[in-house]
Amino acid sequence: MPGLVRRPIVVWLLAALAVPVLLTAVLIPARAGTTEDDLRDRSIAALQARGITGAEVDVDGRDATVAVPAGVDPGLVKEVVGGVEGVRAVRVEGGTPSPTATEAPAAEPAMTPFEVGRTNNAIRVRAVVKDQTVKDAIAAQVDNVLGEDREFDNRITIDPATGLADATTLAALIHALAIGTGDASVRYDGTTITLTGKVPDQATKATVARAAAKAVPGAVIADQLQTPAPPKSEQSEACRTFQSRLSEFGRRNTIIFLSGTSIVNNASKPAVTKAAALLKSCPGIRVEITGHTDNLGSPASSLPLSERRATAVKETLVRLGVARGRLIANGYGEAFPVASNSTSAGRIANRRAELRVLQGNP
């Protein structure tokens, strides 16, 4: 009997141990399959989010193999799938690798140096062109602007590899430089376009500069073109001697006012008429009319009185035919006496107006 009791207990213990083992054997493969499917689905979704379609993803454990059609960058695919959480390694099959930096298209060669110039006797073109057709086209442009007094100084050579492929590059420069006489040129050394010589006016200078900039976009423009200085007007004898004649007028004539007023006294009225005649002898000269007072009034009243005196003389000169724009009236009060204010004669002398040439006259 004791032996019969122990046998069922042993059987039940063995059964209890076998069940977990069997469950583990069944569930582990199922869980692994679920993980691989999840990684595959999330990898495909990540690729589609980056615009990559048509990829086939196979996951073994945590390692992914991705097959992609031609035209898809394998490097990008590897980066996208490698970023999916849970993926350990990525292998990409197919696709088209993107060009590396060393495989990038070579930059177009820089334009070869050239020169377009003119003298009184010739128009000069020094350039390298692609073929005879371009050379002939440039020559035709030169013929259009040569005229009877110039010849074509042709320094054009042909090089199919590096030469200019189009005559229009230089055509605008040829036409712009043909205007005017003397020496002028446009030279391009590979980096800088240098403009030198003389052109007849600012408009031509601007035209040449625009043509140079258009010929080589992005090049540095060193504009050294010169235009003629504006001719100086011929100064008459009356204007050359105006300053000395005005000084002599001041020594011989006085413009005096009645005390406390801006009224010129009768004795001074002929002096104002003479001043008008002197001013009209040189119409381009501008003058200042200065008004002054004695010291009998207060400084607060002397300054406005002196300004009224200067303005009174100005208005009289305008009525006598002097252009208003040539005259400026300023008052200086009692600041600049020419005689002592302690005597009647001195105070009379100080109640005056004077004329002086303004700075900046021709």
Please provide a written account of the structure.
The chain is an alpha/beta fold and 362 residues long. Helix content is 41%, strand content 20%. The protein contains ten helices and 13 strands. The strands form three sheets. Strands 6-5-4-7-8-9 form a six-stranded mixed beta sheet, covered by helices on one side. Strand 2 (63-68), helix 2 and strand 3 form a beta-alpha-beta unit. Helix 3 packs parallel to helix 4, helix 4 packs antiparallel against helix 5 (202-215) and helix 7 (242-252) runs antiparallel to helix 8 (269-280). It is elongated and about 150 Å long. The model is unreliable at 1-6, 25-33 and 104-108 (pLDDT under 50).
The dominant shape is: elongated
Gyration radius, to the nearest Å?
50 Å
Give the helix tally: 10
- The count of DSSP E runs of length 2 or more, i.e. the number of strands, is 13
Low-confidence stretches: 1-6, 25-33, 104-108
Q: What fraction of the residues are assigned to beta strands by DSSP? A: 15-25%
How does the helix and strand content classify structurally? alpha/beta
